Amino acid sequence: MTLSQGKAIFIWGTVISAVIFVVLTYDSLVQMPKRTQETKLDAHVAAGKWVWQKYNCNDCHTILGIGGYYAPDVTKVMSDRDKEWLKSFLKDPERVWPNPRKMPNLHLKDQEIADLVAFLDWVNGIDTNNWPPKPMVATAVTSISTGEAVYKAQGCSACHTIAGVGGKVGPDLSKIGKVRDKEWIEVQLKNPKAHNPNSIMPSFSKVSYKDLDDLAHYLAGLR
Amino acid sequence: MKYDSQKIALNYFIVAALLFGLQIVFGLILGAKYVWDFDPLLNILPFNTARAIHVNLLIVWLLFGFMGGTYYIVPEEAQTEIYSRKLANLQLLLFAVIGVTAIAGYIFGWSWGMPFLEQPTVLKFGIVIVALIFLYNIFMTMMKTKKWTVIQGVLLGGLVMLAGMFLFGVFFMKNLATQYFWWWWVIHLWVEGAWELITGAIMAFILMKLTGVEREVVEKWLYVEIGLVLFTGIVGTGHHYYWIGTPNYWLWWGGIFSAFEPLPILFMVIDTLRSVGERKTEIVNRVALYWAVGCAVMHFFGAGVWGFAHTLPQINQWTHGTQITASHGHFAFFGAYVMLNITLIYFAMPQIKGLVTFKQSLGIKAFWFMCSFMALMALSLAIAGIVQTYFQRVMGMDYLTTQDYMRLWYEVFWVSAWGFAVGVAIFLIDFYRLAKTRA
């Protein structure tokens, strides 16, 4: 090979790739407003995006799978959490979920929290080509998704105690099956205010039907 | 060294070495946060702040190294002194002030909040000014003699591309997906575009000087390598456009083009080994040789193999956003750019100091420490990532529960990181020894 042949590889390689890339970029920018539901992107969402950036959330959490790997990905968080749950969590993470690995209290203002939740709600609607994928091993999921696992995964022990372990904000559940049946517990999980309008417990209605069923079954069995 | 203004590089290398040491300190703090849940720094230096500093220090010290290297190489290629020493010193000062301000700012919560580009907008404009001063100074030097060697042409091209791409990361956009679309024009087209051009040019220069292989041969392969880098790398940006709200044809374009990205890096390995094999002169500077050959090999494994492992969408849909990416990030940045900068420093420092021979044992010790412990770090994070991918993504276990199952590998990672830090300390001691030698 000669120097000029090498030069030709360089020039043509670069030009061809750049042209393809620019054409695809143009088409992507045309399609993205629809794929990201830009019509729903209002001033609250934009303000929420700035809250997300201002507090450098992205260096602990990933969003769209990009960022720090120290905390959960938040792309689809609004599919799993109620707005009220998230708001109280953002207000004081330690109180709502005293996990060993901690999120600092950022002392967000109420307006900032509302905007941030609006932003995450909008992000939840982005068409991500089905990412993150649904778990592949369905049987394995069943085997670990017992009610006890759901209880742990949803952070119930932040407020409730079972057999001496857990928080004191909510009632002790060690023998809850003696006083409440499964149906009552299910209603309580989905809509705590149904039983007590002043309840401070957040709703868990976004938890899957199966997980709720498992959880209620587990709790009703505690006697 | 033939031109007095090549000495400008020395101060750039000093700043680079200092920031490198500091980067490792923050890395060890971050690692500890994974190993122990109890975090005494939670409200002083939380994970996000420490990560922003760790990564920013990396980028800034590598840029200082590239700039120093450019000031060293261009006079010899253009066969003239640097256009303005004053501008070069002003640029150094300005960049250092901006860098320190940015890092101090993160501690006080002054952040723009996009990963790697956390610098507040006003500082970003400062960085643009630094880049303009730098490019002007380099361009004017080249214009003095207009000797357009391929090496300095590629170097200039890489630097212009580096500065140009940065502009896509300066502006706030309301749409997160669009913001990330352009963000990748900075991040990807830097590390798999502009930085590769700069690396190619610097490595070609060093190999030519070190081995005495003819310019024509070196430059021919430089063209082929960067041609393939850009051919695969530009459309290869698409491997970041699988899951961020972009159309699904990127799965094809990004997957196919990025699958070929290891090819030019393999060429660089072959090219390096061939140059050394066909050397026309005895290679006196064994340390520079160790780092140059090591750089080619580790660049291939860290960027090429580790990148290929999770670039196909069928795999990436499971691994995206896990510690697999962190493993690749550590390995690739070390192999490609950290080792290049250390090669450059070991090549240029003795020349700047007018040393024909120098004590080489520390440089070689640092080489083995850093390379072997980085390999362990990359492996342990990769295993952590595989555990995470399997439990969290394949089995559907929740994020925090999965983290408990990964702890052993975080521990191996962190202990290895201390071994790596010993290597860095040896390098810094050696660097200090070289830097204080009177020319």
Properties at a glance:
heterodimer, A: 223 residues, Cytochrome Bc1 Complex, Chain D, domain 2, Immunoglobulin-like, 3 domains, 4 strands, 52% helix, B: mainly alpha, Four Helix Bundle (Hemerythrin (Met), subunit A), 14 helices, 78% helix, 0% strand, globular
Short description:
Chain A is mainly alpha-helical and 223 residues long.
What would your notes on this structure say?
- The complex is a heterodimer of chains A (223) and B (439).
- Chain A has 223 residues and is mainly alpha-helical.
- Chain A folds into three domains: 1-35; 38-123, Cytochrome Bc1 Complex, Chain D, domain 2; 138-220, Immunoglobulin-like (Sandwich).
- Chain A has eleven helices and four strands; from the N terminus they run ααββααααααββααα.
- Chain A has a two-stranded antiparallel ribbon.
- The longest helix of chain A has 33 residues, at 3-35.
- The relative contact order of chain A is 0.10.
- The mean pLDDT of chain B is 96.
- Chain B has 14 helices and no strands.
- Chain B starts with 7 loop residues before the first helix and ends with a helix.
- In chain B, α2 (47-78) runs antiparallel to α3.
- By secondary structure, chain B is mainly alpha-helical.
- Helix content of chain B is 78%, strand content 0%.
- Among the domains of chain B are: 1-129; 284-439, Four Helix Bundle (Hemerythrin (Met), subunit A), CATH 1.20.120.
- At the A-B interface, α1, α2, β1, β2 and α7 of A face α2, α6, α7, α8 and α12 of B.
